Amino acid sequence: MTQVRFDPRATLLVFPCTIKYQDVRTTLLALDTGASATIIRESSLIAIGYSIDSITESVSFGDASQSHLAPKVVLKSLSLADARVDNIEALCYTIPEEYGIDGVIGLNFLRHFNIGLDFEHGILTLNRVR
C-alpha cells in the first residue's frame, strides 16, 4: 500500500513522480481520472533520453475543447512514491509552463491500483490490483 499526502484545498492534485527511460527524472504530474493516457511534457522526455524526432507513432487524444495528435513513447517505468508501473505508454505533449505541471497521470497508470482519496486528511492511497 502506498500513501501520499496532498493539499485537499488545491485546485489540482499534483504529485512528484519518477519517470525512467535511459535516465531518471522527477516530474510534477497532476492526477487526472478523466485522462485515458498519461501525458508527459516534451522537455521531460528529452531529459530522460528520448529523441522526439525519432518517435514514429502518434496517437490522437481529445480534451474538453479539441482533438490533438501526440507522439507516443514507452517509459521503462513511472512511479508515484513506491507505486510503480513498468513499460507504460505516455503521450508527449507541450504543456504551458504557467500550468506548473510536467503532465498528468492518466488511467493507464491508475487502473493498476485501487485508489482512495481522503480529502478530510489529504491522503491518496494506492493499493496494487492483483
Give an overview in words.
The protein is mainly beta and 130 residues long. The protein has one domain (2-128): Beta Barrel (Cathepsin D, subunit A, domain 1). It has two helices and ten strands; from the N terminus they run E-E-E-E-H-E-E-E-E-H-E-E. The strands form two sheets. Strands 2-3-8-4-7-6 form a six-stranded mixed β-barrel. Strand 2 (14-20) and strand 3 (24-31) form a beta hairpin. The model has no long low-confidence stretch (mean pLDDT 91).
Pick out the low-confidence regions: none
Overall radius of gyration: 14 Å
CATH top-level class: Mainly Beta
Overall pLDDT metric: 91
The global form is: globular
Distance between the termini: 12 Å
The helix-and-strand class reads: mainly beta
| Tally of structural domains | 1
Strand order of the largest sheet: 2-3-8-4-7-6
CATH architecture descriptor text: Beta Barrel
The portion of residues assigned to helices is under 10%
How do the helices and strands follow one another from N- to C-terminus? EEEEHEEEEHEE
Named CATH topology: Cathepsin D, subunit A, domain 1
Classified in CATH, the superfamily is Acid Proteases
Query: How much strand?
Result: over 45%
Biggest pleated sheet: 6 strands, mixed, barrel
User: Count of DSSP E strands?
Assistant: 10
Total DSSP helices: 2
